[in-house]
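wait is this the right file?? whatever heres the structure
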């Protein structure tokens, strides 16, 4: 009864009585606010909210816009799905036939044909020997079939890109209005991330080899268009005036003067198209494209370092093979032009 309780210092009214495990008050552990942040917060107290918080579109409006666009794509697929299948079916047949040709042909015949094409293009035994060594190493590690699948896809994608891009580049080179119209489209195509190309392709065409092939073509076509247009525009005006003086028509000037002189530049565009097609094959494997890209994707998902390295090596070897052969062919054309017009 007569004992006195020990005195306890109480915090002031409204104070924070929370403590950490060491007994120190929580307020003592709070780091001081940076002066810059405090200044900005104080500045926002005197400004309208729209100047401190970006005036973004509200969520309900964005939700309606996204739903409208998505429903529009679904309606296109629902209403025109049969027509899309009819248009895509020949491409599917062509792709299957090309893949069977590359895979089912005996490897020695396929290899000899590739070496012959490379030698005719580059006329260099060094490039031909390097190609032979690369193909033998790819086959030695068990990747011949996948490499041939990738080669067939890249070959078809490059062929389609040339068939579409070459005439378009010629028209751009001869028309200022068309150049101003198409250049912004090419700028967007070359700045979009490669994964973005898969979204509309998958929504419209679904999953499979053909959608992947279409994505590869769209991704790889800008260089051949740009450089074809550039090559046409770089032809000397004096040469064109001389052709006019001899009474050449527009078609004669194009096929006998402009295209031969622009061929080295066009070949550079084709070279870049092949390189971009090889780069896109790995991304396109996400929508069903087989070959080396599919193996690389599986290696990433399962963290198989050796599988990813070997398939990456095979892709690099194919890229170097195409690059050296096309560059050598372009240099040969350049030397031929200098000799014939020297």
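ok assuming it is, sequence goes like this
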């Amino acid at each position: 009864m007569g004992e006195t309780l020990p005195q306890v210092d109480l915090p002031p009214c409204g104070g924070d009585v929370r403590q950490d495990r060491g007994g120190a008050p929580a307020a003592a552990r709070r780091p001081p606010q940076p002066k810059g942040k405090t200044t900005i917060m104080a500045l926002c107290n005197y400004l309208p909210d729209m100047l401190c918080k970006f005036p973004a579109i509200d969520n309900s409006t964005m939700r309606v816009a996204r739903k409208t666009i998505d429903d529009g794509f679904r309606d296109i697929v629902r209403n025109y799905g049969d027509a899309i299948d009819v248009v895509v079916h020949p491409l599917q047949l062509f792709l299957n036939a090309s893949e069977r040709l590359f895979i089912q042909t005996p490897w020695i015949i396929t290899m000899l044909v590739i070496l012959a094409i490379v030698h005719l293009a580059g006329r260099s035994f060094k490039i031909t020997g390097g190609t032979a060594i690369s193909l033998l190493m790819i086959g030695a590690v068990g990747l011949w079939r996948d490499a041939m699948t990738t080669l067939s896809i890249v070959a078809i994608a490059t062929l389609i890109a040339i068939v579409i891009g070459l005439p378009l580049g010629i028209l751009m080179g001869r028309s200022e209005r068309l150049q101003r119209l198409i250049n912004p489209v090419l700028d967007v195509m070359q700045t979009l991330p490669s994964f973005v190309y898969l979204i509309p392709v998958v929504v419209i065409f679904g999953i499979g080899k053909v959608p992947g092939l279409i994505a590869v073509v769209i991704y790889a076509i800008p260089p051949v268009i740009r450089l074809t247009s550039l090559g046409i525009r770089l032809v000397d005006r004096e040469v064109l005036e001389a052709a006019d003086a001899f009474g050449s028509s527009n078609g004669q000037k194009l096929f006998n003067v402009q295209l031969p002189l622009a061929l080295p530049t066009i070949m550079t565009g084709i070279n870049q198209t092949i390189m971009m097609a090889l780069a896109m094959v790995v991304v396109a494997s996400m929508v069903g494209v087989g070959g080396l890209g599919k193996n690389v994707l599986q290696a990433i998902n399962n963290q198989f370092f050796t599988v990813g390295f070997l398939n990456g090596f095979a892709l690099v070897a194919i890229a170097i093979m195409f690059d050296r052969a096309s560059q050598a062919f372009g240099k040969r054309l350049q030397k031929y032009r200098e000799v014939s017009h020297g």
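Residues 10-18 have pLDDT under 50 and may be disordered. so i think its the right one actually
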